[in-house]
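pinging the channel bc i need a second pair of eyes. not urgent but kinda urgent?? the chain im working w is below, pasted from the shared doc
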Amino acid sequence: MNRVVASALIAAGALGLAGCGFTPLYGDPAVTAQLHSVQVTTPPGRTGQLIREHLDDALANAKGQAPKYRMDLALAETRYPRGLRVDNVATRYEYVLTANYTVVSISSGASVKKGTTRAQVTYDSADQPYASITAQQDAQDRAAAECARLIQLELAAWLATQGKS
């Protein structure tokens, strides 16, 4: 009896969703095609290179096609000591990456979208110098990946509403 009721509820839910007009964000081929046509300019430094690589992966740039948009990035990095020992040496750090981006239409040269994303990660600081440097670089990579993911979501949402407004 419980299986019949559960099946009926699932069927009713599916019918309700079918009639609501819900479309997944990436269900629109125009959004995906426009995401492919964003060219990212590389900010200076290691973190700039990391975020560009993550954005190239996230946006799946179409090689061989002329881009429609150019994304200019400006990065700000801060590092805060956390977890101080009695000798006032930090054992843990908080790394904050803020990415300000501007999307420019290549055809008109006009700025069409601006935004800011922020990622916070923490990492342990070891007494061994190599381990500490490796932990900091890993934190930079994780923060760059998170900022790239947030930028991708903001761009996809913006592109999805472009055709409907």
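so The chain has one domain: 27-162. and The mean pLDDT is 83. — does that match what u expected or am i reading it wrong
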